[in-house]
């Protein structure tokens, strides 16, 4: 008779942590045990104010009863249902609710489980679209330097952050990259969208000339690049990308995993920035991170080309076991209802000016070289220490956590993205604690 093995002691060894210095962490753990509203709490009960919405995802704040109860109710009724040749009502209801708030024309929704899956799904849809239209030679995918589109091989290939790529050898073939928009001297200390750099979109014309428009399927960019250190698009940049893509029959894909669900003061960044893509990816704020879920929205013409262009049977050989999972769908519906009833995008927009002022007050602190903001996002860039890039910001992160505020760092940039329920006292504490940490790291 088999006996249940005695559990191992919880000595932190078993969990291989993602994007983490495992050796350092397991010698110096910083743990979170509970969350509510604007705050996390450590196992010892110490409060840590969340200035990052978890990982850009808990936009409605933590522990929202409405979402928790929706998940509980659904778990008691239908824990799982496959969506391969079958369906369940909530998957369709959630898609219809999402289509209502998406930018005009983006009304076909494919469910995934994460931003990484959404990125790869969007790229596959783009390839399938061109093939269905008789342009199967359009296999080239264009990303952007310093872009982040998750960790699948598709998103990683079009992404442009070196450390995310260098360990893994050959990635997807037929990929090229646009230049990033960072480092333009005239744009330092910009508030909102910077003024210089729209012409960098013209690099797409150069890629068209190099490869031929007939080979390019899609261009994928983040409306505001987040994980690389908060890079708002220069004024006119996205408009120019849209113009060039339309001119050459190239699909424009927006990765709105970070900018979606109120982060820029509108439901999606496309509305705030005035440019509608052909395909949009999303995740994170979709369920307020209560259950993993992502989605890809496509224009009706993209959907129809793939579905009606199929000779019959399955039109897109792609999907996930958990696409449209019942618990995730319930969480998404409850989250979207919270955004509607509390007007969380409007709330973010209303406090954006105070957020911007507080962020730019960091100018003049030791080694701070730039401050950038867009909506309720801010990036504070610091001069690297000689011979130790990234260490200064890492010291700031650790000092902030120990002093009761959670920030995020990428390289030597501190990235801030609080829940949209943030209020002025929270901002004062966030930036006060951050100021002290930056001075201590000088």
TrEMBL record:
Looking up InterPro entries in the UniProt record yields:
Aminotrans_3, Aminotrans_3_PPA_site, PyrdxlP-dep_Trfase, PyrdxlP-dep_Trfase_major, PyrdxlP-dep_Trfase_small
Which Pfam families does this UniProt record tie to the protein? Aminotran_3
Give the keywords, sorted: Aminotransferase, Pyridoxal phosphate, Transferase
Keyword Manganese carried by entry = no
Cofactor(s) essential for the protein: pyridoxal 5'-phosphate
- According to the lineage, what is the superkingdom? Bacteria
- Which residue ranges traverse the bilayer? none
**Which Gene3D superfamilies does this chain map to?**
Aspartate Aminotransferase, domain 1, Type I PLP-dependent aspartate aminotransferase-like (Major domain)
GO MF term list: transaminase activity
As for family, the record states: Belongs to the class-III pyridoxal-phosphate-dependent aminotransferase family.
The protein's name is: Aspartate aminotransferase family protein
């Amino acid at each position: 008779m088999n006996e249940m093995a005695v559990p191992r002691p919880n000595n932190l060894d078993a969990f291989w942590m993602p994007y983490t210095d495992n050796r350092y962490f397991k010698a110096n753990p910083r743990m979170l045990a509970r969350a509510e509203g604007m705050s996390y709490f450590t196992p010892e009960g110490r409060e840590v104010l969340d200035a990052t919405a978890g990982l850009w995802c808990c936009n409605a704040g933590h522990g929202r009863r409405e979402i928790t109860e929706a998940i509980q109710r659904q778990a008691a009724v239908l824990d799982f249902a496959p969506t391969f040749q079958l369906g369940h009502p909530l998957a369709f209801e959630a898609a219809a609710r999402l289509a209502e708030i998406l930018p005009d024309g983006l009304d076909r929704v494919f469910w995934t489980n994460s931003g990484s899956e959404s990125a790869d799904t969007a790229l596959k849809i783009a390839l399938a679209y061109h093939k269905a239209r008789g342009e199967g030679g359009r296999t080239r995918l264009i990303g952007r330097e310093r872009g982040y589109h998750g960790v699948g091989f598709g998103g990683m290939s079009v992404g442009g952050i070196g450390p995310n790529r260098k360990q893994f050898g050959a990635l997807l073939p037929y990929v090229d990259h646009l230049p990033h928009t960072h480092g333009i001297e005239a744009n330092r200390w910009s508030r909102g969208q910077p003024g210089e750099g729209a012409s960098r979109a013209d690099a797409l014309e150069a890629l068209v000339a190099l490869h031929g428009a007939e080979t390019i399927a899609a261009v994928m960019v983040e409306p505001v690049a987040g994980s690389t250190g908060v890079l708002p698009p220069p004024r006119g940049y996205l408009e120019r990308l849209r113009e060039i893509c339309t001119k050459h029959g190239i699909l424009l894909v927006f990765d709105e995993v970070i900018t979606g669900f109120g982060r820029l003061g509108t439901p999606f960044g496309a509305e705030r920035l005035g440019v509608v893509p052909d395909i949009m990816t999303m995740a994170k704020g979709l369920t307020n991170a209560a259950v993993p879920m992502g989605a890809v929205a496509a224009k009706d013409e993209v959907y129809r080309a793939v579905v009606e262009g199929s000779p019959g049977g399955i039109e897109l050989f792609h999907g996930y076991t958990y696409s449209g999972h019942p618990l995730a769908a319930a969480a998404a519906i409850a989250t979207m209802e919270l955004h509607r009833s509390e007007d969380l995008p409007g709330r973010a927009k209303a406090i954006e000016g105070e957020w911007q002022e507080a962020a730019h007050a960091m100018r003049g602190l030791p080694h701070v070289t730039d401050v950038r903001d867009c909506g309720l996002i801010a990036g504070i860039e610091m001069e690297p220490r000689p011979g130790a890039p990234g260490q200064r910001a890492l010291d700031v992160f650790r000092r902030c956590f120990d002093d009761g505020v959670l920030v995020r760092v990428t390289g030597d940039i501190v990235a801030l993205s609080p829940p949209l329920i943030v209020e002025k006292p929270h901002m004062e504490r966030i930036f006060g604690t951050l100021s002290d940490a930056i001075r201590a790291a000088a």
